[in-house]
Amino acid sequence: MDISEVNHSLFRWVNDLGKEFPFLNPTFVFIAEHMVVLLALSVLVYWFTRDKNNRMMILCASIAFICAFAIGKISGVFYSNYQPFYELNDVNTLVHKEKDNSFPSDHTILFFTYCFTFWLFKRGWSMLWVLLAVLVGISRIWVGVHYPLDVFTGILISLASATFIFVIAPKRSVTQSIIQLYEKYESKFLFSRTMKNKSKNV
Questions:
Q1: Which range, of 110-119, 127-136, 162-171, 186-195, averages the lowest pLDDT?
Q2: Where does the record place the Phosphatidic acid phosphatase type 2/haloperoxidase domain (predicted)?
Q3: pTM here?
Q4: Which of 42, 160, 162, 175 could cross-link to 64 by cystine, CB 3.0-4.6 Å?
Q5: Helix (H) / strand (E) containing 59
Q6: Distances (CA, A) of 184 to 179, 180, 187
Q7: Do 109 and 158 touch, CB atoms closer than 8 A?
Q8: What is the DSSP annotation of 26-45?
Q9: Angle at 174 between CA 169 and CA 180, to 5 degrees
Q10: Cα(36)–Cα(11) distance, rounded to whole angstroms?
Q11: How many Cβ atoms are within 10 Å of 93's Cβ, its own excluded?
Q12: What are the counts of helices (DSSP H) followed by strands (DSSP E) for the chain?
């Protein structure tokens, strides 16, 4: 079997689980489509704890995601395929998507870049973040919008980008300066708001 046949076989194996266990479909649709909201809220919570290590973690994760996303788009120029529901018959398609290049999986890149960065920084429940990223990757196959190769490639790109940025970015003065500059203006904003509230109460 060549890579394409393995890719299709693995897709069928995962996607057909939705036909065998339809009661799980709503859960995987939620994970595939809406878990990004939880990630976004978590990023905001980490950032606004005002802990310097948390802010460095979020900054590194964001830089890594930008790098991984760019690499993903470049790789999509050299290799591409449409979504499984467009190319294959009898796909258990659970979400609506327009016909487009599905290689690599943007959702997988997003989740693995952030969640793996959380793990690298050893934040609480870090393994649960990695597990969540794995579930998101599986869910994209389950709902019929990505092949395993789309997901696996997204994982490799994310892990490489997150590890590279984790190794070099925290030690760079530019990343420290970005956080310091933000905190400088944040302090000014909070001070200004405090003074306005005091003046209103006088």
A1: 186-195
A2: 57-166
A3: 0.89
A4: 162
A5: helix 52-78
A6: 9, 6, 5
A7: yes
A8: HHHHHHHHHHHHHHHHHHHH
A9: 110
A10: 23
A11: 17
A12: 9, 0
Q: Which two tokens stand for residue 75?
A: 């790789």
Which tokens go with 151? 């997901």
Report whether the peptide linkage leading into residue 148 is cis, meaning its omega lies within 30 degrees of zero.
no
- 94 CB-near residues (< 8 Å, 6+ apart): 18, 25, 28, 29, 32, 142, 143, 144
Neighbours of 189 (CB within 10 A): 10
> pLDDT, tens digit, for every residue of 53-101?
899 999 999 999 999 999 999 999 999 999 999 999 999 999 988 889 9
Q: How many CB atoms lie within 10 A of CB 62?
A: 16
Query: Residue 26 corresponds to which tokens in the numbers above?
Result: 């709503």
Name the CA dihedral angle for 27, 33, 39, 45, rounded to a multiple of 10 degrees.
Answer: -90
Q: What pLDDT, on a 0 to 100 scale, did the predictor assign at position 17?
A: 95
Phi, psi of 137 (to 5 degrees): -60, -45
